[in-house]
């Protein structure tokens, strides 16, 4: 090693190594997710062939044919190895029960779920930032809104959905009760799904804002003649955002889980209901496909969040 | 009636075959008095509580909702009216050979499938062969023509169907949507494609079925082969038909009350009175044929292996009162294993068994369950009288879980301890074929008296190799003999006599605890008219029309 080469190599290593570690753990997370799903489902009592046949009387030939078709006569490790191999090739397999490939089953449903999740995510962020900025440090507004937030966190989304439907769909007839056609059908489910997220986010955000508003640099900003709202938006919000962004990872999983309930209540298509049905029916390939997609989403979101921290907080850039 | 095919497993279900002797007349309309005659045009939106998410093709799927979804697009060879009579449809006439093993059908001329293929004898053969082909993995239809040997095309308009033994339920089976005639060109596709789209010659053509959303149809132009006895001939009235899937009871009801849909399946029993009281809405009930919602004791092991214990359970609990109070009269207490609208129902069973807790106590004493432990349960040789009930709570519909809890409380009064073994479907599927339970509950819809063979024949006892519905695991040579004799005769009076014997015997043996008769509760808005009924009690839309604004 020469004295000159060392700093350059070190500098590159400082960037490359964390990235490699990050990618490596991501792959581990994905592999773990598939394995856990596979193991979990196989440990559940019940025979896959019986599940395929369902409630009816079939001849032994039909039974043999199903076993052959689905390769269920092979030992467990072989089924597992084959699945891993196929996943690496991007093939999520064939659904035993839906009579279509897992990719197309998920593809058919994912659009509707993404619409719902995105719209409630945007709604939640807009509402909670607005509420937090306007109420932080203001005694009365704060008291009223924390009360509302507590209620928001406490009510089950199921019930909130029914309530929204009863008032705005069955009663006032403003929005359709079901279906996924057009933006008006997206309003009620997005609101129902956003309620608990808004309640949590605005509390965390307000807490952060209030802490920041007591910092000396805020006083400095004010003394320069900046308006109160300007101080809150330009200075305090940015500081308070950091813990909130961390929460975003949690939000993604929350929205994914919330979709199960909201999609059922509003009779919407989507991944949530697909997953629910697949788990109930022990539809192994679909469950594993959804798990894989969900963990992939998680990994991607977390990498994005890491990058977002750097954008928000300059102090982290040198680290 | 299954929520889906999985559910069908134990909890409810499927069913089919026909020959209904319904209390009401056959092709009556469901939607009340029409202000004027039918008008053509418009869209009818209907909401159902379940969907055939796994497969639309009724040749493959056992779910009755697969029949509901495909009936608008599929015609059958024959039709069945509410009185159990067979009428010509795609077959204009038929004869049965003297040995009753061969059926010869003369087919209608000029029928076209919606993909342009002509309907002929080859098409009939292709359909029946498709149903029994192991590759089809038929979960229901194939089981209903087990003795099928093959079809023989005599000429383009004549087809012979051969059986290995006389098989009297054949025509009524043929009348169901599960034997709906699909386009032979469409049948050449892989099975999976058929699960998404079914092509037939019916009054409607399927546009698209999207899982979790619903199915849409448009009118089949040029349709001119309605079954004999239909309220009208020619094309359907509706331009479009849309069936939505709304699983949540309160949301489905709300969609109806707010006019977002024209009709709904399964009005929640608790809301029936409310809907009836609403001048804009109508509730029509239709008694489903087949096995009632019954409890079946395991007659081969455990406390219920003793007939006296079974009798004590049946007679010591006031099932009728509990059912009346829980369902507000929407469902009637059942008197026997099958519903009054099933062909072959034995009316003499009504009033045969009575609620008599004193007699139940005597029977338990006789059977040796004479001790009592600290909690009030009966004991024998220090063992408590415990009943393990394989109950699938997750799939319980119509408040069957509440009902079960009330039964549990009543059973305690006469000294039975009921334990709910409420695992997952998978766990249940392991235990069921082994007979690892004391009590099981389900309903089994099928319009033919042959439903008794599904429920009580020795060959229907579930084993690891063969799934069956004889949950009581009853094996009675007389019962098997009567059921087999009933297959040999097409004489309705003789069949009814044989089926009555079976019903009497299983009642005497207390091999079934009848609970309630399932009614299809159809809710409709003011604008919808002319919704008809299939014999197996689900709505049809050929004669349906909507008032134009």
From TrEMBL, chain A:
A GO cellular component entry from the record: plasma membrane
Q: Where are the transmembrane segments?
A: 19-41, 116-136, 148-174, 186-205, 240-266, 286-312
Output the PROSITE patterns linked to this UniProt entry: ABC_TM1
Query: Which Pfam family is one of this chain's hits?
Result: BPD_transp_1
Q: How does it sit in the membrane?
A: Multi-pass membrane protein
Q: Which InterPro entries match?
A: MetI-like, MetI-like_sf
One Gene Ontology term of the molecular function aspect? dipeptide transmembrane transporter activity
Instruction: Kindly provide the name given to this protein in its UniProt entry.
Output: ABC transporter permease
According to the entry, every stretch annotated as the ABC transmembrane type-1 domain falls at: 110-309
Predominantly, its location class is membrane
SUPFAM superfamilies per record: MetI-like
Q: Which UniProt keywords apply?
A: Cell membrane, Membrane, Transmembrane, Transmembrane helix, Transport
- Family stated for the protein in its record: Belongs to the binding-protein-dependent transport system permease family.
List localization entries.
Cell membrane
Automatic annotation (TrEMBL), chain B:
> Which Pfam families does this entry report, sorted A to Z?
SBP_bac_5
According to its UniProt entry, one GO biological process term is: peptide transport
Protein's membrane topology? Lipid-anchor
Q: Which InterPro entries match?
A: Peptide/Ni-bd, SBP_5, SBP_5_CS, SBP_5_dom
Q: Where is the Solute-binding protein family domain?
A: 86-451
Family matches, as Gene3D superfamilies: Dipeptide-binding Protein, Domain 3, Periplasmic binding protein-like II
Q: Which UniProt keywords apply?
A: Signal, Transport
State the signal peptide span. 1-20
Subcellular location(s): the record lists: Cell membrane
GO function term, MF aspect, one: peptide transmembrane transporter activity
- GO CC, any one term: ATP-binding cassette (ABC) transporter complex
Homology family: Belongs to the bacterial solute-binding protein 5 family.
What is the designated name of this protein? ABC transporter substrate-binding protein
Per the UniProt record, the source organism is Microbispora triticiradicis
């Amino acid at each position: 090693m020469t004295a000159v080469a060392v700093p350059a190599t070190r500098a590159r290593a400082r960037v490359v190594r964390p990235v490699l570690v990050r990618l490596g753990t991501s792959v581990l997370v994905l592999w773990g997710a598939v394995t856990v799903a596979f193991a979990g489902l196989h440990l559940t009592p019940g025979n896959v062939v019986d599940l395929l046949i369902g409630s009816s009387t079939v001849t032994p030939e039909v039974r043999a044919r199903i076993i052959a078709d689905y390769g269920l006569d092979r030992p467990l490790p072989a089924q597992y190895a084959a699945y891993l191999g196929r996943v690496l090739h991007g093939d999520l397999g064939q659904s035993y029960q839906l009579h279509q490939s897992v990719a197309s089953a998920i593809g058919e449903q994912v659009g509707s779920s993404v619409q719902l999740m995105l719209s409630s995510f945007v709604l939640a962020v807009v509402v909670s930032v607005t509420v937090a900025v306007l109420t932080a440090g203001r005694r009365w507004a704060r008291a009223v809104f924390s009360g509302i937030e507590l209620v928001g966190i406490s009510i089950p989304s199921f019930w909130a959905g029914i309530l929204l439907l009863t008032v705005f769909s069955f009663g006032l007839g403003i929005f359709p009760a079901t279906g996924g056609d057009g933006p008006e059908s997206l309003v009620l489910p997005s609101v129902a799904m956003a309620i608990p997220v808004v309640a949590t986010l605005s509390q965390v955000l307000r807490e952060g804002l209030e802490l920041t508003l007591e910092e000396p640099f805020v006083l400095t900003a004010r003394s320069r003649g900046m308006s109160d709202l300007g101080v809150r938006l330009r200075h305090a919000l940015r500081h308070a955002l950091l813990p909130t962004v961390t929460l975003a990872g949690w939000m993604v999983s929350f929205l994914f889980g919330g979709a199960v309930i909201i999609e059922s209540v509003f009779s919407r298509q989507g991944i949530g209901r697909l997953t629910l049905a697949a788990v109930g029916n022990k539809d192994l390939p679909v469950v594993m496909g959804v798990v894989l997609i969900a963990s992939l989403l998680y990994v991607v979101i977390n990498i994005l969040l890491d990058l977002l921290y750097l954008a928000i907080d300059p102090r982290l850039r040198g680290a | 009636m299954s929520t889906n095919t999985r559910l069908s497993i134990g909890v409810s279900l499927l069913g089919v075959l026909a020959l209904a002797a319904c209390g009401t007349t056959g092709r009556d309309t469901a939607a009340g008095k029409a202000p004027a005659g039918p008008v053509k045009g418009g869209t009818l939106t209907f909401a159902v509580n379940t969907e055939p998410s796994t497969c639309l093709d009724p040749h493959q799927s056992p779910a009755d909702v697969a029949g509901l979804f495909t009936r608008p697009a599929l015609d059958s060879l024959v039709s069945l009216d509410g009185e159990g009579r067979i009428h010509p449809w795609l077959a204009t006439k038929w004869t049965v050979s003297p040995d009753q093993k061969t059926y010869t059908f003369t087919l209608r001329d000029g029928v076209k499938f919606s993909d342009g293929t002509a309907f002929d004898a080859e098409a009939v053969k292709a359909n029946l062969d498709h149903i029994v082909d192991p590759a089809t993995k038929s979960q229901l239809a194939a089981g209903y023509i087990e003795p099928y040997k093959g079809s023989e095309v005599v000429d383009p308009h004549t087809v012979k169907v051969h059986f290995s033994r006389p098989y009297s339920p054949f025509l009524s089976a043929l009348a169901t949507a599960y034997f709906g005639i699909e386009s032979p060109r469409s049948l050449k596709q892989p099975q999976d494609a058929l699960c998404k789209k079914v092509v037939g010659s019916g009054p409607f053509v399927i546009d698209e079925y999207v899982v979790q959303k619903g199915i849409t149809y448009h009118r089949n132009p040029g349709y001119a082969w309605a079954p004999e006895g239909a309220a009208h001939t020619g094309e359907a009235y509706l331009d479009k038909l849309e069936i939505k899937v709304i699983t949540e009871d309160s949301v489905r009801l709300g969609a109806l009350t707010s006019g977002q849909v024209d009709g709904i399946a399964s009005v929640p029993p608790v809301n029936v009175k409310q809907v009836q009281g609403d001048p804009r809405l109508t509730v029509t009930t239709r008694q489903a044929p087949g096995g009632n919602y019954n409890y079946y004791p395991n007659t081969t092991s455990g406390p219920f292996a003793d007939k006296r214990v079974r009798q004590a359970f049946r007679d010591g609990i006031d099932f009728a009162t509990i059912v009346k109070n829980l369902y507000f009269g929407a469902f009637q207490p059942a008197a026997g294993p099958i519903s009054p609208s099933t062909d072959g129902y034995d009316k003499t069973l009504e009033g045969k068994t009575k609620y008599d807790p004193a007699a139940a106590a005597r029977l338990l004493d006789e059977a040796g369950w004479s001790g009592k432990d600290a909690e009030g349960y009966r004991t024998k040789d220090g063992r408590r009288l415990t009943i393990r009930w394989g109950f699938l709570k997750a799939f319980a519909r119509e408040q069957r879980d509440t009902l079960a809890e009330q039964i549990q409380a009543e059973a305690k009064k006469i000294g039975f301890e009921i334990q709910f073994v409420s695992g997952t479907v998978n766990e249940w599927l392991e235990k069921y074929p082994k007979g690892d339970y004391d009590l099981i509950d389900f309903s089994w819809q099928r319009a033919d008296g042959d439903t008794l063979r599904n429920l009580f024949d020795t060959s229907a006892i579930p084993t690891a190799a063969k799934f069956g519905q004889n949950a009581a695991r009853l094996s009675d040579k007389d019962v098997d003999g009567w059921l087999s004799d009933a297959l040999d005769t097409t004489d309705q009076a003789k069949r009814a006599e044989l089926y009555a014997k079976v019903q009497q015997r299983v009642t005497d043996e207390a091999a079934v605890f009848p609970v309630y008769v399932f009614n299809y509760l159809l809710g409709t808005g003011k604008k919808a008219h002319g919704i008809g009924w299939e014999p197996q009690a689900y709505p049809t839309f050929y004669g349906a029309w909507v008032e134009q604004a």
